[in-house]
Amino acid sequence: MNNYSETKSLLRFIENLGWLSVVIGISLIIYAIASINSQSGAYVALVSSYITFGIICISTGIIHVAVVRVGLAIIDNAEHTGKILSILSKQSSAMDGSLHESTESNQHEGEIINKEDIPEGSRLYHNKIIHSIDNKYCVDGNYFSTLGMAKEYIKNNI
What we know:
Low-confidence stretches: 101-108
Distance between the termini: 40 Å
Mean pLDDT: 82
Strand content: 5-15%
Strand order of the largest sheet: 1-2-3-4
Number of domains: 2
Number of helices: 3
């Protein structure tokens, strides 16, 4: 499983820069509003440019923070998917071993299997049991995505 600690650190740094941009933008707007007491045309233009730049800083800072949050959510999703895959592969390997043992013990060479001996959800084909597990078909510990592929495996290995 991948370790995303460096990526998370970089994203947190970018998030902090985004919040810094928001703070700078708010500070510029507050400074501009606090200094509006002069009637000079050049000074009014300077104040309006401070307000405009402050709004731009706030907007870009919020966009940075939002993009970082999306990136962190993607990384969390990848980590959780890796954990789920690990758990499922452990369960699958444990189930493969027990299923393989049960199919070997139930199907001896030349022994005819009675329909009463077939587990629920399984099928008999050419004296072999095809187990249906999680929308997959298993014969002698081998998994197939379709019933036809499982039957073809049985035909080729008789």
